Amino acid sequence: MRNHSRGQRCSPTRSASPPPSASRSSELRRYAEQVEFARQITLPKDSTDHLRVWVNGRLYNDQADAHVLALDHGLTVGNGVFEALKVTETGPFALQRHLDRLSRSAAALALPEPDHDLIRTAVAAVLHDRSFTHGKVRITYSGGFGPLGSQAAYGPPTLVVAADAGTLTGASAKIVTAPWVRNERGALTGVKSTSYGENVRALAYAVDRQATEAVFVNTVGHLCEGTGSNMFCVFGDQIVTPPLSAGPLAGITRALVIEWIGVTEADLSLAEALTADEVFLTSSLRDVQAVHQWDALELDDVGPVTRRAAATFAERSAAHPEP
Length: 323
Prior knowledge:
It is a single chain. The chain has eleven helices and 15 strands. It is α+β, with helices and mostly antiparallel strands. It has two domains: about 5-165, 2-Layer Sandwich (D-amino Acid Aminotransferase, Chain A, domain 1), CATH 3.30.470; about 170-320, D-amino Acid Aminotransferase, subunit A, domain 2 (D-amino Acid Aminotransferase, Chain A, domain 2). β3 (about 80-90) and β4 form a beta hairpin.
């Protein structure tokens, strides 16, 4: 789908329903009100010290100056996709893999093909003259200006790129099983969509139970994924992770762990997963993180297989920033 032209992606529905000029003018007037409101918000000092934002071709060192339309389709109906990646002293990690996944997600939502060169320019801009030992970049791409409903956005798309200092995760995590299931056959399965309400709700459920991640099973009872992580279970020396057919996001770190370490992809029931000798999570901002407690299951803080996996990933990712 990435070979489709930008013109093909912009369906006739978009041009057939042009936004009224009066509505557009009204939204532009609201910009000033939103910016003024943003300036009055007191943010944590470490946030304003580091956060830099690029919006549709313009760089903002003060996040209060950055804004998008109130009727952006990513805001009104969640019609957008995103990527989040880590930044180290050598720069952004695995940027091309993230851009490729952004394109796959955009195609799944029938959004125009993202311009990779433009995004690279934006990433370079938000990282210019800055050095992070542990930072993060967020790329958000939405349908742009659109109606107050689920019809196609009018466009053009909105592109927001932000860079900030990251927060190091602990060596191990406590996780809980979410009381809701993940739909492994839905339209957004495998899509890194800005429609993240389900994950927000599940993570809040975990925090209420003094945990830092919630994990989902899918509609047939197989292990799927965390709200922002992929799952790995260790049985003896064998590492097992749910296959993509179980519904998890095709994580960048997940793929690299499979390539670099050797992993079996297989369906696991929740009961089977809870018999694991070790459990670990992966994500772009946590790399490889051990699990020391999962519901009532207590595990070593960092087991030997997890320790080797984390060490291998750290070594290989440092040596190959664009794997």
